[in-house]
Amino acid sequence: MVAPVAVVGALFIVYPLVKLTMDAFTQGDGGFSNFAAVFESAAIRNSLVNTIVMSLVVTVLCVVMGASISWSIARARSAAFKALLWAALLLPFWMGVVVKAYAWSIIFAKNGILNSVLDQAGVIDEPMTLLYTRLAVVVGMTYTMLPYAVLAMNPTMSRFEPEFLNSARSLGSSRTAAMVRVWLPIVAPGLIAAAAIVFAISIGFYVTPVLLGGAETPFMATMIGDDIFAFFNYPRAAASSVLLLVLALVVLGTALKAVGSKALKGGIAG
Amino acid sequence: MSTYVNHPARALDRTTSILGRLLLGFSLLFLLLPAILIVVLSFGTDPRVRFPPEGWGLDRYVDVFTSGSWGGPLLLSLEVALYAAVGTLVVALPLVFAANRSRLPGRSLLEGVAIAPVVIPISAYAVGMYAVFAELDLIGTQRGVVLAHITHALPLVVIVLSTSLEQIRTELELAAMTMGATRLRAWGGITLRLLLPAVVSGFLFGFISSFDEAVLITFLGGSGLVTLPKYIFDSVQYSVDPAITAIATLLMFAVTFLMLLSSTLRRKEGR
Amino acid sequence: MSTVMTAQRPIRGATTDSVLEIRQLSKSFGDVEVLKAIDLTVQRGEFLTLLGPSGSGKTTLLRIIAGFEAASGGQLLLDGTDIGVLEPSERRLGMVFQNYALFPHMTVADNIAYGLKQRKYARARLRSRVDEMLQVVGLTQHAGKRPSQLSGGQQQRVALARALAYEPEILLMDEPLGALDRSLRLQMEQEIKQVHRETGTTVIYVTHDQEEALVLSDRVAIMNHGVFAGLDTPMNLFTRPENSFVATFFSDSNILDGTVSGGVLELLGQRVPVDTTLAGPVKVAVRPAQVSIVGDGASTEAVRLRGTVREVDLLGELEQVEVDCEGGHALTVRRPVSSSPPVDLGSAVDVEIAPSRMTLMAD
Fold it and tell me: Is residue B12, in this structure, part of any structural domain at all?
């Protein structure tokens, strides 16, 4: 019974990654030439920086907003409020990544909702260019990744002993100081695990950057897609993919070392 | 009394409390507004999507079911999702049992490998699969897309099943055996029976994960296979068909309903 | 140390050196009234225990004093100033929590230093104070460890040192020994007692364990349904309970119904003269140790009953005998094993209660 599973597992989970890595080093001129090609292309270099910087911004936003929601879920006393928080979290979670991006494109379009609301409110005279900007991509990606961040933090937040805060306050800390000195260090592993997971997933984004960023702010994934379907340069696509893979593994590995496998696995398993 | 009041600390607490509430409120609105927006817009009748809609009606829903362009992708998506969900269970069930109940060497690695794809950048995965599929002549085939979706859904389904299995104690099987049940009957009658809600839940997760998937299909589907997310993706990229709001609303409610169903099932099992 | 050890602080009476005054304090959660207009004066330096079954309001009272819950009404005066409106951090109190709530990311020394840092102690003074506290609780070698590396008793000591380090006006303790096993609990009781003597800090201690209250306290406030059922020294509560709740909860007393008229108590159909101001229906409390199983030699002044031995439990030096008496009454008897003739299960015995051993109560 286990044998076919192992075969499928090996073939469809591990083999693509192995083949990808081998191809990146052996196809075309081989060696590091494909990686050199990646870095020679100003467009890809640009998109790599873009991918990393924007994924970092998304990660920070997700961790900050996610911590707020996750913490509220953990300490909510009223069942109705808890239900509202879960609903807010899970409704967009299952919208599908394409539909999410579409929703934001309606909001951000030149004649879209945000512009018309701001116009009617007299805040702006001219519609702003929001769609096909970095802002739109970051917002759309944060919208997609926020539920992941919350789910990754929930185990840590729900385990936090509220008495720690009372304890700090009875010892003379203000609420704020108690949060900074006691809450933050104790939940930090959960936040770090969530950040690593959000970042690792974010750098692979394809749909959202295409729909909300257009040609102005390409992600690595967009360049990879172009390499395969437009330029038929598979070796370079493989090298770019390996770069993303390594980046994800380095970030996850660092997080693993920092917070231990339990927090990270708990984060993934939600 | 006033000598004990720490005014700066209180002012700071008030500020952080307000900021915290603002952050939470903003986060909630951020999560809810776009979803609500899509639902509201789906009941508009204007030829172009606008807010607030000038006319209200079910035109967009009628359009979805009559225009003919949505039917093909929807059917293909349902078919692929069904196969993918079943396939994922076929792979995940033995795997979870092997990882949790056997003494196989490297059994924890097995689960680790199955869960790994969830944190590997999906576009990197798509390229790796693209290369493998090109070798196996699977690009643009439905079989290939189903296989890719199985890989994609596997982590979630394995997590769901293994969390449940961990909670079913082996003692139960042993207890059944001490009372005279054969090993197989103990397993089938007790463990599998208790795992059933998680299996249903895993099926739904697999189904939804495939039904929503848009990246792998873009890389592996060739030009012929257009699932619903791919169709929406293409149509948003090149034109905006307002009927998308209706189909998105339908999807949202269908998926939410399925998820509620699955979590109710699992909660029942938990009691 | 020896000089303070003998100091027995005056508890009640003329002294007005009160540190905490609670006036008409009430608390409701929705429709549920948890505390009903409580009045309490805590003397400086005393060890006061709030004792009661779960749900009696004792923990709520403690948390209101600490500032974690707001009272629904009434006043809370610390040294004459109203602290009801103060944040927990502003109240100058120390608290030991049920599960200690030691900060897991800090060392033992950092935990103890936490309150000192909040009070801006200078570095040298802070360090010497931490060392001093470590010494008081005997954990000097463990200063650099994390709480998770310590045993339950050691964690308890850290919690105590942390709460006492900055010399709070009052130390609040919420069932601090609940998580420990029996032998450790007995040891910790002695340590807490000793620390209380050495520091002279006022302690308000919450527990549901009457033995703990008996051993530790200068005074015990017995709580039931949000009010004080009794408030006195352990000895007075034990020997002269005010009501049947105190009698059963604090000293496991047998409670019997009787009637008093003209200085004569009618109890279980027998009449004995008593010295009481009460009249009419009364409750009679008799501690198990005050009931005796007797031979044939009768003392005329005592209430005497025939019964059957239902259960004999060995408690150590003592044994506890449950006797089902005529008329449907069940009495619990405790007696020294060594000096008592053995009784068999199911055997018929006579039990006797001397009037001087009875406590008569209105309710």
Answer: yes
